[in-house]
Design brief:
Blueprint (H helix, E strand, L loop, with lengths): L9 H12 L3 E2 L3 E2 L6 H16 L3 E4 L5 E5 L8 E5 L13 H17 L7 E5 L13 H6 L5 H6 L8 H8 L14 E7 L4 H5 L3 E7 L1 E10 L3 E2 L11 H19 L4 E3 L3 E4 L5 E2 L2 E10 L2 H22 L2 E10 L2 E2 L2 H13 L4 E6 L5 H4 L5 E6 L15 H18 L17
Parallel strand pairs: 5-6, 5-7, 7-18, 8-17
Antiparallel strand pairs: 1-2, 3-4, 4-6, 8-16, 8-18, 9-14, 9-15, 10-13, 11-14, 12-14
Bound molecules: (2S)-amino(hydroxy)ethanoic acid (HGY) and manganese (II) ion (2 copies).
Length: about 425
Amino acid sequence: MRHPNLRVNTGRLLRRIEDLGRIGAIDGGGVCRLALGGEDKAGRDLVVRWMREAGLTVSVDRIGNVVGVRPGRRDGPPVMAGSHIDTVRTGGRYDGNLGVLAGLEVVETLNDAGIETEHPVAVAFFTNEEGARFAPDMMGSLVYVGGLSAEDALATAGIDGATVEHCLQEIGYNGPADCGTPNVRAFVELHVEQGPVLEAEGVDIGAVEGVQGISWTEYTIEGVSNHAGTTPMRMRHDAGYAAAAIAAEVRGIAREMGGDQVGTVGAITLSPNLVNVVPNHALMTVDLRNTDETLLRRAEQRLAAFIADLADAEGVKISSRSLARFEPVDFDPGLVDRIERAARDRGHSVKRMPSGAGHDAQMLARVCPTAMIFVPSVGGISHNVKEFTKDSDIEAGANLLLSVLCDLAEESTQATGGARASTRP
Ligand code: HGY
Ligand code: MN
Ligand code: MN
């Protein structure tokens, strides 16, 4: 530990979480800052101001990723902390925001202590990590590492029809920098766990070993609208029934497979959506995830077979469009070890674990040694206005991030090992 007595300014970090959480604040203590909307712009402007006030050289790339760099004694790739500040509609104030603001707090702490590091230190927030408005999720970091072209990302239309390019221009974050600059020496993301494990086991810190596979698909179901009262059941081609049957099957597959298999139907829109009309159209999404790629593919295949039979039986047309597909990612073993060791050295209990949620780190793992630090989520709740993490856990996570980043920023050898990352964009 290079600076064993160095500690973050917890009060400053907590204030900034509060200040950022006021932008797009919604009832119940949560936040709604969907990617590239007005609230996202306001949040970006605030964080960029803080970055500049901390003396960082700030760049904005073509897809709106923002990177602030603090110089080191030598030039070259920085060690980077980062995450995202866009949220889902029912977001909490910690998801993503903590990793960005804790990274900034590391910089502020180094500034306050007058510490110069060997390598530059960078703080980043990536565009549209949530994928709730524009698919796929982790879009900005995927472009940053070359897994998706900036052109394809810019051309992507969101759930409201607007394109990424148009929205970036609207908010003034269609930056000049090439995507993927600067390249990165190592990446560490602090994030709330968003699940129940750490709290249930009474563990302070998660040393995250990787991220599970993610499969998002949009289904369009075309049936025949008809009278709810006069149409015999045998004559129906009911898009609403088909959507409901798919949702029930998603739950059935997850239940029968057990293990890490999860399945979610988060969005269903029926048309004409009237009490006395058999729906002729449904648009829905399915989110399947598993830590094991073979099992995830098995779940996908089971659902596809069910849907083909359902379309025949109900006489509806069902077409599908992949919104996101990422294989499971393993983080850098050496970096995970380092996080685990540093946590124990600071007297914390620590558990090695996978991430159930997607994160920008899973993309950075394609290009540099990468790992994550989790802190507990109260009640395991996230993507919910009640998302909460205790101040003491925020302080522990931020000080651990400080310790790991300081060590990485001083070392001549790169963090050992390498990540097995997705091979499919
Ligand atoms: O969907 C996810 O796992 C992340 O919140 N984008
Ligand atoms: Mn997140
Ligand atoms: Mn999220």
